[in-house]
Amino acid sequence: xxxKALSGSRRYWGWVFFLLAVIGxxxxxxxxxxxxxxxxxxxxxxxxxxxxxAQFTFLVGVAASAVMLVxxxxxxxxxxxxxxxxxxxxLAISAVIMCVLFIFVxxxxxxxxxxxxxxxxxxxxxxxxxxxxxxxxxLNLVIGWTTLGAERKEVAPPAWVKPLIYLSIPWxxxxxxxxxxxxxxxxxxxxxxxxxxxxxxxxxxxxAGPALLILLALIVxxxxxxxPGKEALQSLAKIVTYAMTINVFFFxxxxxxxxxxxxxxxxxxxxxxFLGLEGHSRLVPWMWSATILAFVGLALLIYPGTRRxxxxxxxxxxxxxxxxxxxxxxxxxxxxxxxxxxxxxVEYTPTLPELxxxxxxxxxxxxxxxxxxxxxxxxxxxxxxxxxxx
Amino acid sequence: MxxxxxxFLKIAGISTILGIGGTAVxxxxxxxxxxxxxxxxxxxxxxxxxxxxxxxxxxxxxxADVKRVIASCHDIHNVPDFGNPKDEVKxxxxxxxxxxxxxxxxxxxxxxxxxxxxxxxxNHCAYPACVRVCPTKATFKRxxxxxxxxxxxxxxxxxxxxxxxxxxxxxxxRDPRGTDANGQxxxxxxxxxxxxxxxxxxxxxxxxxxxxxxxKMPACVEASNGGIVFGDLEDPNSEVRKLIGxxxxxxxxxxxxxxxxxxxxxxxxxxx
Lengths: 390, 272
Ligand code: SF4
Ligand code: SF4
Description:
The complex is a heterodimer.
Chain A: H1 10-36, H2 51-63, H3 67-75, H4 85-106, H5 115-118, H6 125-152, H7 161-184, H8 197-223, H9 230-261, H10 264-274, H11 284-302, H12 304-308, H13 313-337, H14 352-382
Helix pairs in contact in A: 1-14, 2-4, 2-7, 2-8, 2-13, 3-7, 4-6, 4-14, 6-7, 6-14, 7-8, 8-9, 8-13, 9-10, 9-11, 10-13, 11-13
Chain B: H1 5-17, H2 22-38, E1 51-56, H3 63-76, E2 92-95, H4 97-100, H5 111-115, E3 118-121, H6 129-133, E4 139-141, E5 147-149, H7 159-163, E6 170-171, E7 202-203, H8 209-212, H9 219-223, E8 228-232, H10 239-246, E9 249-250, E10 262-265
Parallel strand pairs in B: 1-10
Antiparallel strand pairs in B: 1-8, 2-3, 4-5, 6-7, 9-10
């Protein structure tokens, strides 16, 4: 099927070469980092994880969005999602690949990465995170490729994929839970030490992931003959609405506990993020932008008139997506390190090479996504109008 | 920052094969050698059930006391000085009461107490969070309580730095064996007795395991004129236990359950 990615319009090839150029710039920046060390980033002994790990954390969320299509389609026989389930699975594949790459570029000794497998350490959450991520990648590759192959031949997918599909549902929840446990089990990092961390991860993922998926589906509809179906996208938009509402609610719970209890350690990171601490306030404009975007997005999604309007819907979805990205991709990780264990404020800003490497990783992810979507859409266009059982 | 031909080939080679497997195998062998040397303990070596420290603040009177102790450690352990706080590597340093014991600050404390230089270093916790999270066992706890680092195994993921609630760990953001813009080496006094590290690994105080093995006290203890006392916390007759028994001592963030093995006698006469 892959050959379908080799023929395309000029616009398709233009996009592919653009991505390749961004990847090239990222690779050069990475070689620079490989040579000189992580000193070229904005990281320090006080904020020892930054942009890379934050992107990893955010993308784990995007990866699990597929399950929001799989559950209604396979468990509730909601046929409308049949046409786009593959888009969710392929999005998951590219997101997990980006996750793995972001961890890789964050390592100080990348050539030793195999030590994690050579010396398996079950008491380390990172060890488990590696297992669940690789497992989820494999599951989606196998499921996506087999079901699409069957669709191309206009037959039902083989029976053995069904159990794998069911397995992928709890597995999607596990990648969030385990990733949340990376943070939620650490003593002395107040922003992270919260029992609802995994729940917050799930809710924000089920908002941001499907939001991106709808946006991608709208692009697909514009650029190809394949129509994902208006009703399917509307149902997904409702899922985004619920998930985002819960996400905001969970966040407010954290705010209440920290401020009503008045425990300084719990208040400090939140104060740093939203008000600034001891004169340091680099993230304040970002966090307030995220807050405003969250409420704008929610208002537009909750009111049916704007949600159903397909020229307003993308604005709502972009708001939700960017809001979740700022929250996970900047606030959560950096806020955990500020103030440091000595209650001192040391700030962090990513550097240019750090951003170039990150863009490079995103470009790899988008290239994988483009190729996979190209194949999927080519198959869909061929089989347009054929009803295939599942 | 010109890259010469050899470096270029090295990078090119690594980027083609994405350099995995090979190095890991070499690391495995090196690790074996290390363990072999541990098999034959020096009969003079110091041993304990659980090593611990008592820091007696009454002995730190001047800036010189602090400097001497820090230098005694950093000089023999080839701790690099990068000259900027962002890349800083440190094994032992000082901070004030308010920041060493956050959550126990006292707004009415005397200026004297507020200004005391508290020596801080890895607590060699009994239940160390750093060991719990390390995905490669590069950070591990020895039977005698010393929390150790295997710098050949560490992948530089820095999970341990996020986990340690005491900020005890430093990362080699750049090559410690290198030189600064003026050609000055980052390691001011290279001590051939102790291994230097490479970029991309985490390091911290290792309880002077190399000195203990030769029957010597940790360097900071020796240099402190009684300011830092070292001994077996499990032995009721050890000097550390006697000090803890006689004085009121506090530890850093005991509520987090890592059971730090550094006890501070903060003194202040009637508070003692
Ligand atoms: S002080 Fe930090 S680095 Fe040292 S043993 Fe305790 S948790 Fe680990
Ligand atoms: S940085 Fe090294 S010592 Fe720390 S957790 Fe990772 S592998 Fe272990």
